[in-house]
Amino acid sequence: MPGIIESLNEAMLRDPRWRPHQDRRAGGTKYISTFVNSRGDVIALDLGSGGKSAIWALARLSPGSLMPSVDREFYPADRPRNSNLSVPELKGKPLTRFYPTSRSEAQQLVDHFASA
Questions:
Q1: Are 66 and 108 in contact (CB under 8 A)?
Q2: % helix / strand / coil in the chain, to the nearest 5?
Q3: 3-class state of residue 49 by DSSP
Q4: Is the alpha carbon torsion for 2, 23, 108, 52 positive or negative?
């Protein structure tokens, strides 16, 4: 049975608001699946985060008021990160890593980033 992020990844491949990042394989690698919305904003699903589900997004798209109950971690631009996040839109930028605990929370985040 697929986990939260794997299920979300499959759904986003069919979601017309998102397309796989042109520099990455559709469906992702073993670790990361990267998507672009119609405005060119990029988010990444962390397929290799083990027991935790994680979604990466640009910090500028991730205000503190966005689902405050969801655990998150701020990554300053100079903090090391997975090399699979090295697409131009995310490389060297401040990011937020969200840890949704349900498929519903994960979908709400993706819906926000689709229209942010």
A1: no
A2: 25, 25, 50
A3: coil
A4: positive
Rounded Cα distance, 115 and 56, in Å = 16
H or E element: which one contains 20?
strand 18-20
Q: Where are the alpha helices (DSSP H) in the chain?
A: 4-14, 103-115
Kindly give, in sequence order, each residue whose CB lies less than 8 Å from that of residue 93, ignoring residues fewer than 6 positions away: 58, 59, 77
pLDDT in tens, 76-114: 999 887 777 889 999 999 999 999 999 999 999 999 999
pTM over 0.70? The answer is yes
Contact between 21 and 34 under an 8 Å Cβ cutoff? The reply is: yes
d(CA 11, CA 103): 11
Query: What are the residue boundaries of the structural domains of the chain, listed by start?
Result: 4-115
